[in-house]
Design brief:
Blueprint lengths: L2 E7 L3 E8 L5 E8 L11 E2 L1 H19 L6 E8 L5 E3 L9 E2 L7 H10 L1 H9 L8 H11 L1 H6 L2 E3 L1 H10 L4 E2 H5 L12 H6 L12 E2 L4 E4 L2 H7 L6 E3 L2 E2 H8 L7 E6 L3 E7 L11 E4 L5 E7 L4 H11 L9 H10 L9 E3 L19 E3 L7 H21 L7 E5 L6 H11 L3 E4 L4 H13 L6 H8 L2 E5 L3 H36 L6
Parallel strand pairs: 1-5, 5-13, 9-10, 14-20
Antiparallel strand pairs: 1-2, 2-3, 4-7, 6-8, 11-12, 14-15, 15-17, 16-17, 18-19, 21-22
Length: 514
């Protein structure tokens, strides 16, 4: 029997899954929490060596758990969260801590770019509404605020690229991650103008070489084999950024096919056959295989991240037990829809909002809190708030959405899937594989290994749809009635987000005041 191995280096969890090469069934999975550090408010960093150590440990566990002979692994693909900054020095060592995409240190710099027109120009070239954690923005911030770190940088890469580097010894990135550097989205190539716009033209040649999505980067080195349990010489493909990998992993390769991912952030991704930049200044545009693009309307403020925070802050005891997830699902299902008029805007992450509006200062809100509110009420309200943001995101797109497939860690919740289907008032397809990002890069590895003639052939053989969630008409009517209030509350809060950020900025400069 032959297998392919997919690695999904996530913001909160790193997953390694081994798939049967013939039908895509999962043979083994292992997970490790992603350890992050927040040395200052709104900062989000990782130790690069420690992160790779977790990846290596998860690979060893997956091989052992599945009883997989490493010689039977035909290829390896790596997915990783997009954005952030992973940089090495001339000796191949980390130039500093990895800065992850939710990092908000550059929000003030980005605000200046918005005022002087650079954000508008950046979007016109790249199709990406910049967030503070965009690599180009972080490079500019480092040059201005930490020139020592900036000066040590020899090569700029992204999260999955560093894993590939440790596995193969080769420095490279791919088109999908290049999209969010960002790049010239029409020519599908790095843009000197963007580097100049950011004031970091001297870093243009520091960018890792760009390969095609799914192209072989190299082969597992003897050293990496000893660390991971893999066989030296196993081919490793570029893989793809997580949003693109998830679309591949559910088979959304054709224009009009969409995938909603309830992950740390909440991504609503539509495959298109042209570079779609409308609505202007909002969302992201990524490069897909086969000369296609992916228009991504993402609530980067949070998907499952918001739910995790609610559970930890308000419901640790309420949802205790051997199977916390089942308890959470049962208790939230017992809560009536829109209980007591509670609304939550799911923008808890420090990256703010990128769709349906671009606002790096946006933050979460709880509206309608009273003495009848319970932890289960808050959980259901988060699920509903995320679903309402799904309406906003797809509603802003000027392109046909023929079908939506729903996946991600949060989509394991049947209740959450039902809420999303009702909010959208349309059926949602549910892929069988939970780790669709890992499966997506495994499909790339299977194709590169020659097991399939094309990526489409690999998807037909290895992507399995488990079922369809159809909207409950009564619930859909309730949500259609409630959505305008959610929308209008968000619009009213928009001018207050910036005032909050200014207040915090003033407070940070008054630390000596008692």
């Amino acid at each position: 029997m032959s297998y392919v191995l997919g690695i999904d280096k996530g913001t909160t969890t790193t997953k390694v899954s081994i798939f049967d090469l013939a039908d895509g069934r999962v043979a083994a999975t292992a997970r490790r929490p992603t350890q992050s550090f927040r040395p200052r408010p709104d900062w989000h960093e990782e130790d690069m060596a420690g992160t790779y150590g977790n990846v290596a440990a998860a690979i060893r566990e997956a091989l052992a758990t599945g009883g997989i002979d490493p010689a039977e692994v035909a290829g390896i693909g790596v997915s990783g969260h997009m954005g952030g900054l992973w940089a090495i020095d001339a000796e191949g060592r980390p130039a500093g801590p990895a800065i992850a995409w939710p990092d908000g240190r550059a929000a003030g710099l980005l605000d200046r770019w918005k005022e002087d027109g650079r954000v508008e120009r950046l979007f016109a070239i790249s199709g990406n509404a910049p967030i503070p954690g965009l690599p180009l923005v972080l490079l500019s911030w480092l040059k201005e605020n930490d020139p020592d770190f900036y000066g040590r940088i020899d090569k700029v890469m992204l999260a999955k690229d560093y894993v590939n580097y440790r596995l193969t010894g080769r420095v490279a990135t791919d088109e999908s991650d290049l999209s969010f550097l960002p790049c010239d989205i029409r020519s599908r190539a790095p843009s000197r103008e963007l580097f100049a716009l950011a004031g970091v033209e001297d870093s243009f040649d520091r960018l890792a070489p760009v390969l095609g999505i799914g192209e072989i980067v190299g082969r597992v080195t003897p050293g990496a084999a000893a660390e991971t349990g893999l066989m030296a010489g196993t081919p490793v493909v570029t893989g793809a950024g997580d949003a693109v990998a998830a679309a591949i992993g559910v088979g959304a390769l054709r224009a009009g096919q969409a995938v909603t991912v309830i992950g740390t952030s909440f991504m609503n991704n539509l495959t298109v056959d042209r570079p779609l930049l409308e609505p202007e200044g909002v969302g992201f545009l990524f490069l897909m295989p086969g000369g296609r693009w992916q228009r991504l309307m993402a609530n980067t403020g949070g998907g499952s991240l918001c739910l995790d925070w609610i559970v930890e802050a308000f419901g640790a005891k309420a949802f205790a037990g051997d199977d916390r997830f089942e308890t959470l699902e049962r208790e939230a299902r017992a809560v009536p829809p829109l209980s007591n008029g509670l609304f939550i805007h799911p923008y808890f992450n420090t990256s703010g909002m990128t769709a349906p509006r671009h606002d790096p200062f946006a933050r979460g809100s709880i509206f309608g809190l009273d003495i009848n509110t319970t932890p289960a009420t808050l959980v259901r309200a988060v699920m509903e708030g995320v679903a309402f943001s799904m309406i906003e995101c797809y509603g802003a797109l000027d392109a046909p959405v023929e079908e939506i497939r729903i996946t991600g860690g949060g989509a394991r919740s049947r209740l959450w899937r039902e809420i999303c289907a009702a909010a959208m008032n349309r059926p949602l397809l549910v892929p069988e594989a939970e780790e669709t990002g890992a499966l997506g890069v495994a499909l790339l590895a299977a194709t590169a290994a020659g097991a399939y003639a094309s990526l489409d052939d690999a998807a037909r053989a290895m992507v399995r749809i488990a079922g369809t969630v159809r909207p409950d008409p009564r619930l859909a009517a309730r949500y259609a009635d409630a959505y305008p209030l959610f929308r209008d509350l968000g619009a009213d809060l928009t001018p207050l987000y910036k005032r909050r950020a200014a207040l915090l900025d003033r407070a940070s400069r008054m630390k000596d005041v008692p």
